[in-house]
Design goal:
40% helix, alpha/beta, single chain, Aspartate Aminotransferase, domain 2, Cys_b_lyase_bac, 2 domains
C-alpha cells in the first residue's frame, strides 16, 4: 500500500481514538510528576512544596574525620564538594530515575554531555561501538571526532535493520550498541527488545537515547542498560536551560558511570536542576495537550497535496509504527514532514521563512512551536527515508492548534504557487 493511501486511511480513522493513543501515557504519569522527589513533612516541621535551591562549591565539615568519611560516600547523595553534586541535583536524579524506571541517574550539564558520558564510561581503546545511523548528529560527531582518536571503532546500522543483520555487524570487540528511538530527524521507531537481545548476546550494553520517549517509554523494561535524556527538552519545558541525564539499571554500571562523571567534571548548576525539577511538575499536562495538537497537525498535513509523507510514530505509515504501538504508552510533539520530490530545497526554505506562528530555531520540547529544515542537517551512512524529498521537522507547542494549521496552510499554499 502506498504512503498516500495509508495517509488517507489514517485521516479517516476515529480521530478521538488517535488523540487518546498519543496522550494516554501522559495522563498516567500526572500524579507521579507532581509528587516525585518532594520533601515530606515530619516531626511537626513544615516544608516548602519546592525543595530549596542551595548554591555552593565548598562544603564545610565539623572535623577532618567527618570530611574523610564523606569522601568515601561518593555513590549516594552526601555533600562533599559542589562539583560532585548538590541537594537539588540529587532530587532531580531521584525524579528522573523514578520516571525512567532506573536504579540510578547521573545529571549532566547538557544533552550532549549526557550522550557522551556513557560512551566514555563503557568504551575502551580497541572496543567497538555499533550506532544507529539515525542517532543524534552531535553524538555521531563526538564518536567520529573524539572516540576514534582514542582507539574506539565506530560503525553504523540501518535503524530498521533485522536481528540477523545486526548480529552480523557485531564483533568480538563490540562493547555497546547505541540507538535513538525514534530516530533523530527520520523518526524510525526501533525494536528495543530485539536490540537488547543482540547486545546482550555479544556481552555488550544497549544504550538508548530516550529523549523523545521520556514518560511514555520505559527503556529498562524492554532490555536497555542505559537511558539518555536531554532534559533541556520536555522535562525543563520552557526553553530556558540546558541540562541532561544518564540513567542505568544496576549498581555496577552506576558506580562506573558516577566515577566517570566525577573524573570528567560533569556537573549541572543548582539553578538548572531547580528549573528542570519545576518543569517536571507540569510535564504531563503540557505533553498531553501538545501531543494531541501534534497528531491533529500531522493528520492534517497528510491531506495536503504538497506533502509526500509525515513521519509521526503514531501514524501507520511511519517506519517502526508497530513497535511504537507495542512499546509506547503515548507520543510526543515532535515529528518530520517530507515534501514531494519535485519541490526543491530552496522552495522549502522559502516556505519555512513564510511561517508566522513557528519559530525557526534548534531544540524542541518547550512550550513554543518550532520548525527547522533537516535535509542539510542529516548525516547518513545507510539509506534514509528522508532522502525521498525535502524534509523539515516540526515541534508543536501550546499555541492554538487551528492557528498553527492556518499558518501552515498559507505557507503550503505559497509553496504550491511558487510564491515567496
Amino acid at each position: 500500500m502506498t504512503h498516500r493511501k495509508l495517509a488517507k486511511e489514517e485521516t479517516q480513522m476515529d480521530h478521538e481514538n488517535l488523540r487518546h493513543a498519543v496522550s494516554r501515557g501522559w495522563r498516567e504519569m500526572a500524579s507521579l510528576a507532581v509528587r516525585v522527589a518532594r520533601d515530606v513533612p515530619h516531626d511537626g516541621q513544615g516544608v516548602f512544596v519546592n525543595p530549596a535551591v542551595a548554591r555552593g562549591s565548598t562544603v564545610l565539615f565539623s572535623s577532618l574525620e567527618a570530611m574523610e568519611a564523606a569522601g568515601h560516600k561518593r555513590y549516594g547523595d552526601e555533600l562533599i564538594y559542589g562539583a560532585m553534586g548538590t541537594p537539588l541535583q540529587y532530587r532531580l536524579e531521584q525524579a528522573i530515575a523514578t520516571i525512567e524506571g532506573a536504579t540510578h541517574t547521573q545529571i549532566a550539564p547538557s544533552g550532549l554531555a549526557a550522550c557522551m558520558l556513557p560512551l566514555l564510561a563503557f568504551l575502551d581503546a580497541g572496543s567497538h561501538c555499533l550506532m544507529s545511523d539515525s542517532v543524534y548528529g552531535p553524538t555521531r560527531r563526538f564518536a567520529e571526532k573524539v572516540l576514534r582518536r582514542f582507539g574506539v571503532d565506530i560503525s553504523y546500522f540501518p535503524p530498521c535493520a533485522s536481528e540477523e543483520e545486526l548480529r552480523r555487524l557485531c564483533r568480538a570487540e563490540t562493547a555497546a550498541i547505541l540507538t535513538e528511538s525514534p530516530g533523530s530527524h527520520s523518526f524510525e521507531v526501533q525494536d528495543i527488545p530485539m536490540l537488547a537481545r543482540v547486545a546482550h548476546g555479544h556481552g555488550a550494553r544497549l544504550i538508548v537515547d530516550n529523549t523523545w520517549g521520556i514518560g511514555i517509554f520505559q527503556p529498562f523494561r524492554h532490555g536497555a542498560d542505559v537511558s539518555i535524556q536531554a532534559l533541556t527538552k520536555y522535562p525543563a519545558g520552557h526553553a530556558d536551560t540546558v541540562i541532561g541525564a544518564v540513567s542505568v539499571g544496576n549498581e555496577a554500571d552506576w558506580r562506573l558511570l558516577r566515577d566517570t562523571a566525577i573524573q570528567s567534571g560533569q556537573v549541572a548548576s543548582p539553578d538548572d536542576c531547580a528549573l528542570t525539577l519545576r518543569g517536571i511538575r507540569t510535564l504531563p499536562v503540557r505533553q498531553e495537550r501538545q501531543s494531541q495538537s501534534a497528531i491533529d497537525v500531522a493528520v492534517w498535513l497528510q491531506s495536503r497535496p504538497e506533502v509526500s509523507r509525515v513521519l509521526h510514530p503514531a501514524l501507520p505509515s511511519c517506519p517502526g509504527h508497530a513497535f511504537w504501538k507495542r512499546d509506547f504508552s503515548g507520543a510526543s510533539s515532535l515529528f518530520g514532514v517530507i515534501l514531494r520530490p519535485d519541490f526543491t530545497l530552496p522552495q522549502m526554505e522559502r516556505m519555512i521563512d513564510s511561517l508566522r506562528m513557528f519559530g525557526i530555531g534548534a531544540s524542541w520540547g518547550g512550550y513554543e512551536s518550532l520548525v527547522l529544515p533537516t535535509t542539510r542537517g542529516i548525516t547518513r551512512s545507510c539509506d534514509s527515508v528522508t532522502q525521498t524529498g525535502p524534509t523539515f521537522r516540526i515541534h508543536i507547542g501550546l499555541e492554538d492548534t487551528q492557528d498553527l494549521i492556518a499558518d501552515l496552510a498559507q505557507a503550503l499554499d505559497g509553496l504550491a504557487h511558487g510564491e515567496g
